[in-house]
Design brief:
The complex is a heterodimer of chains A (about 350) and B (about 675). Chain A is an alpha+beta fold and about 350 residues long. Chain A has eleven helices and ten strands. Chain A has two domains: about 90 residues; about 230 residues, BirA Bifunctional Protein, domain 2 (2-Layer Sandwich). In chain B, a hairpin with a 3-residue loop joins strand 11 and strand 12. Chain B contains 18 helices and 31 strands. The chains are: A alpha+beta (about 350), B alpha+beta (about 675).
């Protein structure tokens, strides 16, 4: 009797282990555990077992049932997974097909560089001021110590709207406007478009500048060097060297041109720096007392510095762009590189 | 300015190589921009800034080198032998325009080509050799910085010189054979009868030194820069002479330079020298500039010794007298740029060396940074546009006014009120932009021509409109253009590009938390350059702030563009500032679920999606949470002139879960309403 059950169990195991599909497993389930199944039949016949053996016999029968159920379950699961995998395999996609992305719009390289520079100066406590692009001759020239017929006016080819209205030739035009409406201390940057009517083919009639200035009691030329060094190190890296050379601007005195060690060749000499190892990047100086007088400040009370730079120049050096005309031609292939 | 290395060495005995000299000059404010080797010499190209006319000569540069290197300057004294009688007869009628006029006569010169040393030296400095007499004047100009002019004495009527303005004289032929138009106040040199030179700029053809010349009158003068500069500009002629006079020559160098030239002419071309005529009614009075000593250190941020300051200043020929805390400094006559203390402090810094000035950071009080809403708005717009897939372009602020005709802009449109540039170099620079669209169309055309098809650009820039004030009104405009490439779309993006741009505007307004906007369509196009059926205005708070639409096919033809272009403009982005709610308020999240029901209706084509949606939203019930359009369909089996619209409606109550019965009863009210008001048929 007991052997009977054991042989059923063994046979079932053998058959289950030999099964090759979910269908066979399901058939075996019916064969052994179904309503008319072999084991089910044995369980039904339990009543005919003598009273004293019934308990033990029932236990073994139940064990065999659980064993077969578990084994069937295990195999069913295995075959289920395999079937699913087969289906999933048929759903395979080509992952090398390009993704369905939202197009990325880019900001113009001038905007990107300008934003970076503005961020640096605002982190140093400078605030952003603006002035008109069409400016009075007064703010663009006269207030900056360039009276009419001053030879320094030759340094900038000017677009005129009328005799005393010009397209501003530099963002320095913002200086006296800000000074007239504020009291020191002043820490100001003024970014924006400027215009020069240069007929040279390598020049462009409009470009961007950023003017910066600081006015207070006791501002020194060494402070100018300090602020510009911090700025250059933040834009081009702390290894960049600075060189201050005497120069001339009517609205600053002393005036300086600032060179940085060539960012391309690191000072060894290359095409970009014309083998000098240096690149001109900024003009600066101590604000000329005449400018303070024009703004109504007492030059004996206040001192200050001012600096200005061409944004395209900085961008060209940062990105290695070799032709300034590319900036405003707006070729998509240029714009999408930044 | 070009300067020969060897020539400089004649005046300062320095031991530097040309490269070392170039570096020394560059680091003291005279940038050497180039160098050229010529036959054992080096020609330096030096950038002399407008404040230093005294350095527009070999001796000027040599003097500077002597100061930089601390080596003495050697200038040999000029010795001439006066051989023949009185100097020329000279009358200066406008002494405020000509503060000094010196001259001598040379009789019996032999005009001939210059000796080789002289012509070579001139040519290496870019000056053409002409003949010995003229070449000497150019040589002295270069050596000493004093422009000179030689007249053929025998062509000077009355053999005399009168210095006076043009007056009624209208025209004058200069020696380059050009007729120059004169203005009344231009200064001329006359003989007894006629003008013979445009003072300080160029001599006249009528008295030019030629191979026939035997007697010469040599002029050396000081002309007022304030008169030379406008005259040179007025006749559109810049010469080596006018360049120097316009910046100011050394008034105390006039006679010396004349004698140096006379000496050389006598040596090379022979001739007998007359006495000197020197009209110099108001001799130069040196300026005394006070400098508070401690200001030098406090402005530069250095600790310089007084002896160093004294050495620097005396090396520059500035003499010093100490009075208490003040230095009284007298600059030489050739340094007219030195007028006040700051000019002297600059000289000290320059020769002390900028590299020796320490690097410090300013001490300044902390204070809150002011908010610049305009700047913040522009940044927000640019970021929003780029997130919507548009790439920023920047165009020149000018445009060709003719493009307004091409755009079909009416003549009374305010965009026709142009701010014109007086001196444009090309037609494309003739007017300031009143709209950004033409530039964007040009950007599209350029890119299409270069084979790029999918183009999505935006620009945020100023446009310029006339105003009541002296300066025009500068409005910040936003414009975008989109050329949708319908041919290649891997993921089946076939909808009208109009909606891509509309989405970009809606994104922007949502970014700025502006909710009271609408897209309002009229029966005509909102702009003359837009497709009448595919354009509308954008309003915020009922006020039109911009327009969006497909560009009219005719306009595309005129701009030579083949494509499918949509664009939008926000006329003045600052208007948006009035509508932005800067305050963000949190609304609690709903606690109960929503129930969703769809409704699909067939209505006449004239009925807009917005109209149908409004019908649903207008129903007086607080459980309709949202209505969204999810399908539009025209074509079979929908009858012609009709379309199908399908909306998904969300119902929700804040304080309990809705039952199906509650939703169903409201939903049937909606269906009835749509049937009644829009004459809608339900689609099953």
């Amino acid at each position: 009797m007991l052997n009977d059950i054991l042989s059923i169990k063994n046979l079932a195991r053998e058959e289950i282990e030999k099964a090759e599909s979910l269908k066979e497993i399901q058939d075996l389930k019916v064969k052994y555990l179904g309503k008319k199944g072999i084991l089910t039949g044995k369980i039904k016949s339990l009543g005919s077992i003598p009273q004293e053996d019934r308990r033990e016999y029932g236990r073994i029968l139940n064990e065999a049932k659980i064993y077969i159920e578990d084994l069937l379950g295990k195999y069913e699961e295995t075959f289920n997974t395999a079937e699913l995998n087969k289906i999933l395999q048929t759903q395979r996609i080509d992952v090398t097909v390009p993704g369905c992305y939202i197009p990325i719009g880019r900001l113009h390289p001038t905007t990107q560089v300008l934003d970076e520079i503005i961020k640096i100066f605002t982190s140093l406590g400078f605030n952003v001021e603006e002035g008109p692009e069409i400016e009075l001759d007064f703010y663009n020239f006269e207030a900056l110590n360039m009276p009419k017929n001053h030879p320094a006016r030759d340094m900038q080819d000017t677009f005129y709207i009328s005799d005393d209205v010009v397209l501003r030739t530099h963002t320095s035009s913002v200086q006296v406007r800000v000074m007239q409406n504020n009291v020191p201390p002043l820490r100001v940057i003024a970014p924006g478009k400027v215009y020069r009517c240069d007929a040279d083919v390598t020049h462009i009639p409009m470009f961007h500048q950023l003017e910066g200035f600081m006015v207070d009691k006791n501002i020194t030329m060494s402070d100018l060097k300090g602020v510009l060094e911090v700025f250059i190190h933040m834009v081009f890296g702390v290894d960049t060297k600075l060189r201050f050379r005497p120069s001339f601007f009517p609205f600053t005195e002393p005036s300086a041109e600032i060179d940085i060690s060539c960012v391309i060749c690191k000072g060894a000499g290359c095409n970009v720096c014309k083998n000098t190892g240096w690149l001109e990047i900024l003009g600066a100086g101590m604000i000329n007392p005449r400018v303070f007088e024009m703004a109504g400040y007492d030059p004996e009370e206040y001192t200050g510095f001012a600096f200005g730079m061409g944004i395209e120049r900085v961008a060209m050096l940062k990105y290695g762009i070799d032709d300034i005309r590319l900036f405003y031609e707006n070729d998509k292939r240029f714009l999408e590189q930044f | 300015m070009k300067a020969s290395f060897n020539w400089l060495k004649e005046f300062v005995d320095f031991k530097l190589s040309p490269e070392e000299l170039a570096h020394a000059l560059t680091m003291s404010g005279f940038e050497v921009e180039g160098m050229e080797e010529i036959e054992g010499d080096a020609i330096l190209d030096i950038n002399v800034t407008p404040n230093r006319p005294d350095c527009l000569s070999i001796i000027g540069i040599a003097r500077e080198i002597s100061a930089i290197l601390g080596i003495p300057l050697n200038i040999k004294p000029v010795e001439i032998r006066e051989q023949e009688g009185r100097g020329p007869e000279v009358e200066v009628k406008d002494p405020h325009l000509c503060q000094r006029y010196a001259s001598r006569l040379i009789h019996g010169v032999k005009v001939a080509p210059s000796p080789e040393w002289l012509s070579k030296r001139l040519e290496s400095h870019g000056v053409k050799a002409i003949c010995n007499v003229v070449d000497v004047t150019n040589y002295v100009l270069m050596e000493m910085g004093q422009p000179l002019h030689a007249f053929d004495l025998d062509n000077l009527a009355g053999g005399k010189i009168i210095v006076k303005t043009a007056g009624t004289e209208k025209s004058f032929r200069t020696l380059d054979n050009e007729d120059r138009n004169l203005k009344e106040d231009m200064l001329l040199i006359w003989d007894a009868e006629k003008p013979v030179a445009l003072a300080g700029i160029m001599g006249g053809l009528n008295t030019e030194v030629s191979s026939e010349t035997v007697n010469v009158l040599l002029e050396s003068a000081y002309f007022n820069p304030a008169s030379i500069r406008p005259t040179a500009k007025g006749v559109n002629l810049t010469t080596e002479s006018s360049y120097r006079f316009a910046r100011g020559v050394d008034i105390n160098n006039i006679a010396k330079a004349l004698d140096r030239a006379v000496q050389l002419i006598a040596e090379i071309a022979g001739g007998r020298i007359s006495q000197l005529t020197d009209i110099y009614p108001e001799p130069y009075v040196p300026l005394q500039v006070p400098v508070i000593f401690k200001k030098i250190n406090s402005l530069l941020g250095i600790q310089i010794e007084e002896t160093v300051v004294q050495n620097i200043l005396s090396s520059l020929d500035l003499s010093i007298k100490r009075e208490g805390d003040v230095l009284l400094v007298t600059p030489p006559s050739f340094r007219q740029d030195i007028q006040r203390d700051i000019d002297i402090i600059e000289e000290i810094a320059r020769l002390y060396g900028y590299d020796k000035i320490p690097v410090t950071l300013p001490n300044i009080k902390m204070r809150p940074a002011p908010v610049n809403k305009r700047q913040d708005l522009i940044r927000a717009i640019k970021n929003s546009m780029s997130r919507s897939g548009l790439t920023e372009v920047i165009n020149y602020s000018f445009f060709n006014p003719d493009t307004l005709d091409k755009l079909n802009v009416p003549f009374d449109d305010k965009r026709r009120n142009l701010i014109l540039v007086k001196n444009p170099l090309k037609k494309e620079e003739a007017a300031m932009r009143t709209t950004l669209l033409p530039s964007l169309l040009n950007n599209v055309r350029l890119n299409l021509n270069r084979g790029e098809k999918a183009l999505r650009f935006f620009e945020v820039s100023k446009v310029f409109l006339p105003s009541e004030d002296k300066l025009p009104y500068e409005a910040i405009q936003l414009a975008a253009i989109y050329n949708k490439d319908m041919s290649a779309s891997l993921y089946g993006d076939k909808h009208d590009g109009f909606y891509d741009l509309k989405g970009a505007i809606e994104n922007l307004l949502r970014d700025l938390i502006i909710t009271n906007y609408r897209f309002e369509q009229d029966s005509t196009s909102v702009e003359p350059y837009m497709h009448p059926g595919k354009s509308c205005s954008v309003t915020v708070g009922g006020e039109p702030i911009g327009s969006i639409g497909t560009i009219h096919p005719r306009i595309l033809e005129l701009f030579d563009i083949t494509g499918n272009l949509n664009m939008f403009e926000i006329y003045n982005v600052e208007k948006l500032l009035e509508h932005i709610s800067f305050k963000k308020t949190f609304i609690s999240l709903p606690k109960f679920p929503y129930v969703e029901r769809d409704v699909a209706i067939i209505v006449s084509k004239d009925i807009s999606a917005e109209q149908a949606q409004a019908e649903i939203l207008n129903i007086d019930s607080d459980i309709i949470e949202s209505v969204s359009l999810f399908d539009i369909y025209t074509g079979k089996p929908i009858p012609e002139n009709k379309k199908s619209l399908a909306f998904s409606i969300r119902y929700r109550m804040v304080d309990k879960t809705l039952t199906d019965e509650e939703v169903d009863s409201l939903h049937s009210v909606i269906v009835e309403r749509l049937k009644n008001t829009l004459n809608a048929e339900m689609r099953s």
